[in-house]
Structures are given as structure tokens and as C-alpha cells.
């Protein structure tokens, strides 16, 4: 793709495409609904409990990485289905690896949440 230089109009347009990607993720990807719902619950709980700035930092990074991984996974799945609509072992492996990455990050995010929330909940 030819790069014709930087313009503010092009940068603003790229943000529109990115926001459309977030919309598509949250509108059509069922697993993203689960992640977003859990994220909303964590945000509400964190607000009620009164997390520190450092704790919020970890929560925001955990939520962001899980949702970003889900977006990448969904992109890989969509492109794989276009390239090879019929069963293909290499495509299956690719999709499984991408889903596994989301699972790893989701588990890490859950552990992060437990480390932050459990001590606060035991004090209540």
C-alpha cells in the first residue's frame, strides 16, 4: 500500500475505522459480550470497594488486553473462514491457538482480579 503522507483528516478517518472495529466486536462477537459484561461488573465492584490508582491500573490493563485479544482472535477467525470455508487442519490449529491466547489472558485477568479483590472482600 502506498503511503501518501500524514494528514489530520486521514488520522481522524483511521480512528473512525478503529471505533467501528470496537462496535463490531461488541455487537457481533458473543465471547466479547461475556468479557465486556465481566469487565462492567469488575468496574462497578471496584468503584464500590474503592480501588487504589495502582489497582485500577492493573484492572484497566487486564480488561484492555483481554478485549484486544478477543478482537484479534475474532479477526483471525473471520479471515480464516474467508480463506478456507471448508475444514482445514492448519486453519483449525490457527484458530485454536488464537482462542488459547484469549483463554490465557482471561485466566491471568481473573487471577489479577482475585489478587486485588479477595483481600478487600475478606475485610468486609
Automatic annotation (TrEMBL):
Subcellular location: Cell membrane
GO molecular function terms noted in the UniProt entry: kinase activity
Membrane topology designation: Multi-pass membrane protein
Keyword terms of this UniProt record: ATP-binding, Cell membrane, Kinase, Lipid biosynthesis, Lipid metabolism, Membrane, Nucleotide-binding, Phospholipid biosynthesis, Phospholipid metabolism, Transferase, Transmembrane, Transmembrane helix
Main location: membrane
Coiled-coil zones: none
Membrane-spanning segments: 32-50, 56-76, 97-118
Stored InterPro entries: DAGK (IPR000829), DAGK_sf (IPR036945), UDPK (IPR033717)
Protein origin, superkingdom: Bacteria
Family: Belongs to the bacterial diacylglycerol kinase family.
Protein's recorded name: Diacylglycerol kinase family protein
Lineage of origin: Bacteria, Pseudomonadati, Bacteroidota, Bacteroidia, Bacteroidales
